[in-house]
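F.,

This is the one I mentioned.
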């Protein structure tokens, strides 16, 4: 997608470093690689909510011709290798592991929202890095191997959380299985970034023309879902409320897609990626 170097990403506002990078930096690197990959007959195009001068750049002309929607929430992972690390000390793991902390605010509201979102959108993922530290990340970035060193965890495989306790996801390199804590529940199967091309190609049966109708239906479905969830939560989310209606001038393919990206970012913390056939 042209203009990606001029993009201001609004992926997350959580900047606490764990493996030496922020969620913003990791998400930027992961998405940038998607736009740069030379997959035969395949394109992954992030729809970013903060493109600069997107109308003038004509970024929407570089979207896939036929595509389906993927959703990513980028998480930080903590690499734990010492014998006193909790899940090594208690015998859960015998070797180093990665730990992802879920956001516990408002009784783990973000996780609950994502669990609802994935019912209609099964290609919704937590994406976490498999780096032992900043040097490892930098080496992977320069080698264009960020994607290969990432773990994709489907929200449809996660467990619901109905409390305000701190919950974690843990996994090890070389194993597709993972655990969701606090009470450890083993979940069989996750996806490695090494297999992302195959994941994308498996979605081909769902590809359809990325026209104004596609963009409008995506916006309407997202807005309707947010209205429903907001009512169920009895919570006023003012930033999202202001975006649920769209003006006449914005009712174009690019307008609908940008507004959908805004809603997904603000309400769910998600980044929308369209995957399909290149132009």
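My design for it:
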């Amino acid at each position: 997608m042209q203009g990606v170097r001029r993009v201001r990403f609004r992926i997350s506002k959580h900047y606490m470093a764990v493996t030496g990078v922020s969620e913003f930096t990791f998400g930027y690197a992961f998405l940038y690689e998607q736009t740069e990959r030379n997959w035969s007959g395949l394109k992954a195009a992030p729809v970013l909510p903060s493109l600069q001068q997107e109308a003038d750049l004509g970024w929407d002309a570089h979207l896939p011709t036929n595509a389906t929607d993927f959703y990513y929430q980028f998480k930080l992972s903590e690499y734990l290798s010492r014998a006193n690390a909790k899940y090594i000390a208690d015998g859960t793991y015998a070797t180093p592991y990665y730990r992802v902390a879920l956001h516990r605010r408002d009784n783990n509201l973000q996780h609950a929202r994502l669990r609802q979102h994935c019912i209609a959108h099964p290609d919704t993922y937590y994406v976490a890095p498999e780096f032992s530290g900043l040097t490892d990340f930098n080496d992977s970035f320069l080698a264009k191997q960020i994607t290969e060193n990432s773990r994709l965890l489907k929200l449809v495989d996660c467990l619901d959380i109905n409390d305000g306790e701190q919950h974690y996801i843990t996994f090890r390199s070389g194993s597709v299985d993972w655990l969701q804590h606090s009470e450890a529940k083993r979940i069989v199967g996750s996806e490695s970034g090494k297999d992302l091309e195959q994941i994308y190609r498996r979605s081909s049966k769902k590809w359809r023309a990325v026209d104004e109708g596609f963009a409008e239906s995506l916006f309407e479905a997202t807005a309707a879902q947010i209205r429903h969830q907001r009512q169920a939560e009895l919570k006023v989310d003012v930033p999202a409320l202001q975006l649920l209606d769209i003006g006449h001038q914005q009712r174009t393919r690019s307008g609908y897609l940008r507004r959908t990206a805004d809603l997904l970012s603000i309400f769910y913390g998600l980044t929308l990626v369209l995957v399909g056939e290149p132009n």
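Residues 11-273 form one domain.

Talk soon.
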